[in-house]
Amino acid sequence: MGAVVAAIAAGVFGIAGALTSILVGRRQTTDQAAVEYGQRLRGQRQEAFANYFKAWDKTHQQFEDIAENIDEHTSRENFDSDRYEQEVAENPRRERAGRGGA
């Protein structure tokens, strides 16, 4: 009778061990999928930030170029009154926009 109890106990513990390993294996798979998803999101964010900073640098450089050359474009020596009058005649809104109203 002791051998029968030992065999039943071994069977119960064997089945319990198998079920536990199945649950642990599923948990490991789920955890691994969550980690991989997080890594994929992190990579996408890094790529998005890299693209944003590239665009920012390009825009910043354009503003720097404008600021560097602003004196050249706004100096009195480079002002052509005949050309200005012609442009105002072609586009009357330009003159009004320059005076702060439309």
Description:
Helix content is 87%, strand content 0%. The protein has helices at 2-68, 70-74, 81-90, 92-98. The longest helix is centred in the middle third of the chain and has 67 residues, at 2-68.
Which SSEs are present, and which pair or pack?
Blueprint: H1 2-68, H2 70-74, H3 81-90, H4 92-98
Helix pairs in contact: 3-4
Summarize the structure.
The protein has 102 residues and is an all-alpha fold.
Integer average pLDDT: 82
Distance between the termini: 106 Å
Name the helicity range.
Answer: over 70%
Structural class, from secondary structure content?
Answer: mainly alpha
The backbone outline, from C-alpha atoms, is rod-shaped
Q: Please tally the helical runs, counting DSSP H or I stretches of 4 or more residues.
A: 4
Given as residue ranges, the uncertain stretches (5+ residues, pLDDT < 50) are none
Number of strands: 0
- H/E order of the elements? HHHH
DSSP strand content: under 5%
**Rounded Rg:** 38 Å
Largest sheet: none
Distinctive features:
102 residues, rod-shaped, mainly alpha, 4 helices
